[in-house]
Amino acid sequence: MANIFAREHLTGQLSQTKKWDVIVIGGGATGLGVALDSATRGYKTLLLEQVDYAKGTSSRSTKLVHGGVRYLAQGDIDLVKEALYERGLLAQNAPHLVKNQNFIIPNYRWWEGIYYTIGLKAYDFLAGKLSLGKSKHINKTKTTERLSTLRQKGLYGGVVYKDGQFDDSRLATNIAQTAIENGATLLNHFKVTDLLQNDTGKIIGVEAKDTETDAHYTFSSDVVINATGVFTDEILRMENAEAKKSVVPSQGVHLVFDKSFLPGDDAIMIPKTSDGRVLFAVPWHDKVLVGTTDTNLDDHSLEPQAQEQEIEFILQTFNNYLNKKVTRADVRSIFAGLRPLAAPKDDSEKTKEISRSHKVIVSETGLITITGGKWTTYRRMAQDTINKAISLKKLPKKACETAHLAIHGATPTEDRTNHLYIYGSDQKGIASLIKEQPELGEKLHERLPFLKAEVIWAVRYEMARTVEDVLARRVRALFLDAAAAREMTAEVARLIAAELNRDEAWKLNQIEEFTKLANHYCIEGNTVTA
């Protein structure tokens, strides 16, 4: 039986379709969601991603599936309600990747316990039937029992609430697989180079290039959807060189530390830091992830870098709440991500005040652009986007099918002690690879749990094409311990080269490219001054 995830199989579908019902540009959370929604409604769907699924913003989140407690404080009830509903659906549709996470807000002023308890009761209420559990106030003793590294001086107690926690790029990979299983054609490392327009200026398709082979293609469709996040304006300028800026990138930075700095199962949420931003410290894959900052940037790139003052802000703020202090030497990985926020109308709007709700925009050319939003609401964003195409009479009317659609790998996961739990039902496949070749059961690095079999699996069934695809987004080595990821580069390049039949020159190039990248995730190689 043909492997439907193999690149040869997917590129083979390109010549079989004269005209696509829907072409999606961009393979982050939004684009993948749109492709899945489109394919499950029965439309012939093509998605093109210039690098890899979730390469940009969608692999660099705070790993939270949440309603947005801070939007509640800003009075954006509708946004919170929508996100909490989607959080509930996501927990049902991808139970292997989404877990119920306890968060504790430590209280260092007497009134905070009352204030946050009332606010979070409203949060629970808005979640309705899809609530993950009730929030409650706990005393100082209970708080320090649960957060043993928390600063005790001045502590009154804590407020516990529940939200979702997940692995972002693993979910992206699984959504891509689900879309392919439902008949969509998805291609990563495939860059859209231009939009095609007819005599009246209407969009009728795209030009694209397979960056692996340099082969050029022309694809036609009456429905072209721009879901490129911070790259939205590049696509808009293909249809109109004078297009106004529609997106402002806002940078979020995260530092990753060993679990010893937050040894329990609870996460910490600091609702108001010295300058009003929110800080999270979240247990993630046996490490602790601390972020985030909101910094407006004028430009964007595929590999944003943390600024020195962002790193200092996180270290200092985290240390304000710890009795076990972190230093720069404790940082295992550092990563920056860009959020595509809708451009403010004037200078008075700051990033934390720009709404995170999404917008579907239709250009005069007929190009449909989806911007804004967040991971938690990816499914709803996709639904709204395809509904918009239907309302424009560009597609025959069909109902959305994704609300209760199981994502690839979906299986309830109670035991998360074995790191392979994130594969859900695919764990069996990895086990059989190891059975066939026992050496694939060996670890790639002593400090991380990842196995050689996972590299083969990623290439064969998860569309990974490069060392970076594997170590950054299929297994999360780069985000968990950048130095360890750097040290396993040669072995991973060897395994991929054997699987894809690549030569020595390819292997050496991959080692060089990934080593250079990994240096930016190590604290000594990352920082830039603003």
Write up what this structure looks like.
This protein has 530 residues and is an alpha/beta fold. The protein folds into three domains: 7-57 and 170-245 and 348-392, FAD/NAD(P)-binding domain; 98-166 and 248-342, D-Amino Acid Oxidase, subunit A, domain 2 (D-Amino Acid Oxidase, Chain A, domain 2, 2-Layer Sandwich); 419-525, Helicase, Ruva Protein, domain 3, CATH 1.10.8. The protein is built from 18 helices and 22 strands. The protein has helices at residues 7-12, 29-40, 69-73, 77-93, 112-127, 140-146, 168-181, 232-239, 308-320, 378-391, 427-436, 452-461, 467-474, 477-480, 482-487, 489-500, 504-521, 523-526; strands at 19-20, 22-25, 45-48, 64-65, 99-107, 136-139, 157-165, 185-187, 190-197, 203-210, 216-221, 224-226, 247-258, 267-270, 279-284, 287-291, 295-296, 333-342, 359-362, 368-371, 443-445, 448-451. The longest helix is centred in the last third of the chain and has 18 residues, at 504-521. The model has no long low-confidence stretch (mean pLDDT 92). Its cofactor is FAD. Residues 21-378 form the FAD dependent oxidoreductase domain.
